[in-house]
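User: We ran a pulldown and think these components assemble together. Before we commit to crystallization trials, I'd like a predicted model of the whole complex to look at. Sequences follow.
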Amino acid sequence: MAKSLLIISRQAPWSGPSAREALDIALAGGAFDLPLGMLFLDDGVFQLAANQQPALLQQKNLAANLQALPMFGVEELFAAASSLAERGLGADGLALPVEVLDDAGLAALIDRFDQVVTL
Amino acid sequence: MKFAIAVFSPGHAPSSRRALLFAQAALAGGHEIVRLFFYQDGVHSASANIVTPQDENDVPAQWREFISAQRLDAVVCIAAALRRGVLNDEEANRYQRPAANLPAPWELSGLGQLHEAAQGADRLLCFGGD
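Assistant: Here's a predicted model for the assembly, 249 residues in total across the polymer chains.
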């Protein structure tokens, strides 16, 4: 049986290539039909903020690529409740359908996956 | 035990040195390394153009010597490498850049190689990253 991999994305979409490079790991794995999950943690939850205007920062929009996750078979998407709260983001109206987890839920999630990559 | 090792930080970062020391210790302990995968700023370790001051630890050179001596599979993510100016001859020609800086034993390939290595290993170990 294939090993499951949780990708933990911790960087804001405008802080450098990390958010995109974490997403690329997920999309590449999805193309191989691997059991994957993606967790948005710490500043990574900024990737989920709706209606961003990255063009004002001369940045490419990551949102369209994030939307591709379910199409690539990556449907297990999570966000940390504490990270959202600390940054004033509500659990409603996020750009992706994520399951919001409290700290105990995060521990159980990480425990459930065979392997974890954090970027 | 079979290890897949991913390196996300450049050669001058402490985590790259830790990854190298771990890899050396793993082999010395009779374990197997199915693949080294260099991603994000980790791709800089593969650059042949790094010049480390003489009185400092030359981790990129140590990676190169270790990989060659142990005949390890060392893959550099092509997308991360192109973005950071780490090119082999083929890519330098393709993008008409004046120089290539990725010689053997390193190999340029895609993220599928990370997944394949992780699937084939008992443990995936990541060093560096944000």
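The first helix of chain B runs from residue 14 to 28. That may be worth checking against your pulldown data before setting up trials.

User: Thanks, that helps.
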